[in-house]
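INTERNAL AUDIT FORM
Audit reference: QA-55
Scope: verify that the stored structure record matches its stored sequence.
Auditor: D.O.
Record contents follow.
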Amino acid sequence: MSKPSKPAARPRAATLPRQVRVIGGQWRRHLLPVPDRPGLRPTPDRVRETLFNWLGQDLGGWRVVDAFAGTGALGLEAASRGATDVLLIELDAGLLANLRALKQRLGAVRVQGGDGVAALAALAPASVDLVLLDPPFEQAALPAPALAAAARAVRPGGFIYLETPQRWDDAALDALGLAAHRHLKAGAVHAHLLARPAPSA
């Protein structure tokens, strides 16, 4: 008599980490909660570490906007490294409540509810040093207007960090007055550090 076959193993569903940690600066190892929210995909530790190696570990005096803040991990990394003014923008009400709780604990960021693209468009031109863009991957049309608004808001010599599921080409960046400075592919993520070149002397 033949033995009954074993049932096929079920594929494991992708799960989010329950927490992410701040990588460096004064809040190094501080844990941030990761709620179960549609589209929420925190930037991995390795990618955040690489980004702030590119930017430098001392962001003293920098003005930073995290336009799709989610857990707040990117913006809090900047604040932890001394950025003077960090604005976290989030549309989701539950995530916004978490960010406001973090502000109560840490106190070094500003938190604003609303649409990230609209908030960037409302900023004064050339008024920030760094814009952080990690829009939901499933909203494929979102990076283009977000990047255009960020390009207007960032100062000459400043930077934009962009996470997308595909790499942006040089021609598309040039049309916005931006240039690719660094790039990293980690799994499904393309991490771009883009520069707005300063006018030549």
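Auditor finding: record pair retrieved intact. The longest strand covers residues 154-164.
Action required: none
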